[in-house]
């Protein structure tokens, strides 16, 4: 079965941009202040003091968990487990995709989803709806997705994607939209224009909706990140791949050149296939160093690594919580 989050790094080199960054901002030296006039007239010290300069502290990255929650409520305790972690003090954002899109109110699990979403949001968590974008409408959308191009078109238009977001908003109480296959196999300029139009359409539905773009790669161009009236996403998923690849990610990539200019909450990393024994503490620390605010790590594997919570969900949540208290 095709799973919603698709890795399209090889198509996105030089294409996309997210808004959040890797590690803390580079330290800079700042003069404390001018000395009083009396001191100015005194004889200068032969040795300049460093007490008159301070190094700006690095921004503190508070990690949050962004869960691709592609599992049905009621069939397991996964939604309740997310609520428990949210209540423990770790911010949880769940991406849900009930029918590879919003579906309808007549779908059999509609009431269960609505109740699970309410429970997580009542606890302070956030929920965002999955929408496929098929690389800015360049690919044919998968059959079975509940949002399809309006005939006679065979590929998504901007309006098709905005209409899918509207359907989510009509059916569910939610906090944002997750745009998968975010990027393009065409020109960067065309891709940025497409997603800027999608972004504006979603904000017309509700200006408070968070727009998350998933290029899934650290090669995404900065131009895709929303800056002023430009760009197409509030948050960019700048890594979605095997956990074993995370250690060497970002070196020499576009993301590494701009990430530190933005708040960490503008970037997310999603790691799958991280086996039992995977060093969660190190990976969370690396995400902070890279200035990435949202993190998810699972031992679930392809073809759908997001149809369960990780077997070490509690330990992962504890690791994130501990990292935020240091």
Q: What features would you describe in this structure?
A:
Helices cover 29% and strands 15% of the residues. The chain has 326 residues and is an alpha/beta fold. The chain has a single domain (9-20, 62-323), classed as TIM Barrel (Alpha-Beta Barrel). The strands form two sheets. The protein has an eight-stranded parallel barrel with strand order 3-4-5-6-7-8-9-10, surrounded by five helices. A two-stranded antiparallel sheet has the order 1-2. α3 (78-87) packs parallel to α4, α6 runs parallel beside α7 and α9 (280-289) packs across α10 (313-323).
SSE arrangement:
Layout: H1 9-12, E1 29-31, H2 37-41, E2 53-55, E3 64-68, H3 78-87, E4 92-96, H4 110-122, E5 126-132, H5 134-137, H6 158-171, E6 176-180, H7 188-205, E7 210-213, E8 235-242, H8 254-258, E9 267-272, H9 280-289, E10 294-297, H10 313-323
Parallel strand pairs: 3-4, 3-10, 4-5, 5-6, 6-7, 7-8, 8-9, 9-10
Antiparallel strand pairs: 1-2
Oligomerization: single chain
SS-based structural class?
alpha/beta
Please tell me how large the radius of gyration is.
22 Å
What would you say the CATH architecture is?
Alpha-Beta Barrel
Instruction: Compute the number of structural domains.
Output: 1
User: Any idea of the CATH class?
Assistant: Alpha Beta
Order of helices and strands: HEHEEHEHEHHEHEEHEHEH
Largest sheet report: 8 strands, parallel, barrel
